[in-house]
Input
Amino acid sequence: MSGRRVLVTGGGGFLGRRIVEMLVERGDAVRSFSRGEYPELRALGVDVRRGELESARDVRRACEGYEVVYHAAALPGIWGDYQEYHRPNVVGTRNVLEACRAAGARALVYTSSPSVVFDGRDMEGVDESAPYPDRYEAHYPRTKAIAEREVLEANGPMLATVSLRPHLIWGPRDNHLVPRIFARAHTLRRIGGLNKLVDSTYIDNAAEAHVLAGDSLRPGAPHAGRAYFISNGEPRPIWDLVSGILAAGGLPPVTRSVPYSVALTAAATMEAGWRLLRIRREPKLTRFLVHELTTAHWFNISAARRAFGYVPRVTIEEGLARLKEWLKKS
Output
């Protein structure tokens, strides 16, 4: 399905840019809405618009005349003041919903995260019936959960909405996960000797899932008003995945470890110190990160397969090979 007028918020970002490229390649008229200027998108023929998610006026202008919206823009991270996350992730999403209604858009694909249902315990093969937890250890999942709920509640006869939850997106041009792993390559430690299974998602698979979900999304569609887990469907021990990414960059694997109790105490101490001193940069370790690194996170993606034909085409091994080649040229 091509020839549509499509808006991608966060079109200059890691996931957003790949969605934009896939849509342009097949002939859609694409507009990108981001904070920055992206000449590489203009070179593709994309209508690049700059603005702030928190500005209802900016968002409304970006949506005018567009029938399908992919809302991939958000503030990620695990540290900072609540309002720093609430403004782009919640207020920004509300502005997108209102702009979609005003523009007469018929479909909105929202990029969420599996962390919206993470309660600090293992998630092993869970499906979309997993409930939202009562509390969150970080503002990012908390605000994304608020936004996801509002997006799904907005589904109706005029505007169809769907929420996708891709887990640990990585690959060439990654500006978040891969750089963080490389930056800490020599200080990373396994925690408590644990090596739980985790899912991850190669960038092309994550982008294609969005395109597929949007293609068949319309009022009354079976997947309208629902959330879906997205991954490669290849759960791996977390430190095996991390070491695979390190190897792609020519770096040694993680072999040293630290006791779980020591890591958790260090994380709590760092958080307290950072708050006391009002340090804005993220601590090297937080309790949320400790729990993420010591619990299983893998998901049943059969619902996405059934609903809109999602099939992860790029395996982890092929993805690592592509990442290695890209890093050599970067």
Observations:
- The mean pLDDT is 95.
- The chain has one domain: 5-240+289-329.
